[in-house]
Design a protein that fits this description.
Two copies of one chain form a homodimer. By secondary structure, chain A is mainly α. Chain A has ten helices and no strands. Chain A has two domains: 52 residues, Homeodomain-like (Arc Repressor Mutant, subunit A), CATH 1.10.10; 123 residues, Tetracycline Repressor, domain 2 (Orthogonal Bundle), CATH 1.10.357.10. The longest helix of chain A has 22 residues.
Chain lengths: 212, 212
């Protein structure tokens, strides 16, 4: 599967070649299955060179995504504090990135994901593995429910970004962050932790008492 | 402001000319402010001809939008029944349209709205005036809160469509409609009717007792 693009170490385009290979590999295999080794093979370079340029797989992924913010810095601010307000902090962090100068590339990324299947895959992987997974882990969510809970959270966050920054739906487009935090935060909290109807309750392990 | 495109009644392109004029006028002025008379003037035809081809302003708007479903048929099914389950019926109706053959043009419309400001305006007007307004009216929502409630509902519906049909975020992409109705329905219900924090309570009129 690995395609050699034919650049050699030291070539000034090596960094760009690695980034292109990383985008391909992350989109094709997903973040977890994409190894530095596979990305290096696709780029036709030594894995050590990938480490040299980008440090870790996380950082390579951020660079490949042109990510508008570093989850390693943002996620801890969401997790710190009362677990019952994690939904509000998640919306607050999300809005503060999208309302900042980093919002412009974020909007471009969202627009691109809508028309480009590969960008959609990268965006999906980014949100799922870099943002939502640590939040769900922190809340000790039942792993069987984590994917649905995570994708529900993502659906509301994408919709909020669409309404505020792309479709410019009023009053969301110009609302104070506090208004959106208090309106949407409880939705996030419910998707993350409340029992979802028709789903087993939110517990990591359940002991079923023997019958009789 | 009206631009005469120069078609005359009876021209075989008259219908297309009226539709183009309608798209321009609805996007520029919004649904409420766009009159049949203004659309006819933009198209360079007699208003009677617009009525002849399209019947009502509502129907002209649906045709101009290439709307995937007729709200006049769908909205009553959302409103009928227990008001406490209007959120679930709204999600159910939404999913049944997007999961049907009408979903293909709906996805195309959403993609187009993301890259095209005018389509975004038409989509916004369509959802706001044709779908959400009757639902909010039916629930007797405080008019001062209706725009925020409506746009919150829209944000989650857009996000759900994005997650299920555009970004294909699992498990939302392939979940049974019932799973999404029971997960997202209560969010809709809350956005429509529950007190929004930091907002005055959900009442059409309030009487403040005199002091002392």
């Amino acid at each position: 599967m690995a395609r050699r693009i034919g650049r050699r170490p030291g070539n000034p385009d090596t960094r760009a070649t690695i980034l292109a290979a990383a985008r391909t590999t992350f989109a094709e295999r997903g973040f977890d299955q994409a190894s530095i080794r596979a990305i290096a093979a696709t780029a036709g370079v030594d894995p050590a060179l990938v480490h040299h340029y980008f440090g870790s797989k996380d950082k390579l992924f951020l660079a490949a995504m042109n990510a508008p913010a570093d989850p390693a810095k943002v996620v801890p601010t969401i997790l710190a504090g009362d677990p019952d307000q994690i939904g509000e902090r998640l919306v607050g962090a999300f809005l503060s990135i999208w309302d900042s100068p980093a919002g412009t590339p974020a909007v471009a990324l969202l627009r691109s994901a809508v028309s480009n299947e590969w960008t959609a895959r990268l965006l999906r992987e980014f949100l799922t593995t870099q943002v939502l997974r640590p939040v769900l882990d922190h809340l000790d969510v039942d792993p069987a429910q984590a994917p649905l809970r995570g994708s529900l959270v993502a659906s509301q966050l994408f919709g909020l970004a669409m309404a505020r920054h792309v479709l410019r739906l009023e009053p969301i487009a110009t609302a104070a962050p506090e208004t959106l935090i208090s309106s949407v935060g409880p939705t996030m909290q419910r998707y993350l932790t409340a029992p979802l109807e028709g789903q087993p309750p939110h517990r990591r392990s359940r002991v079923t008492p023997p019958e009789g």
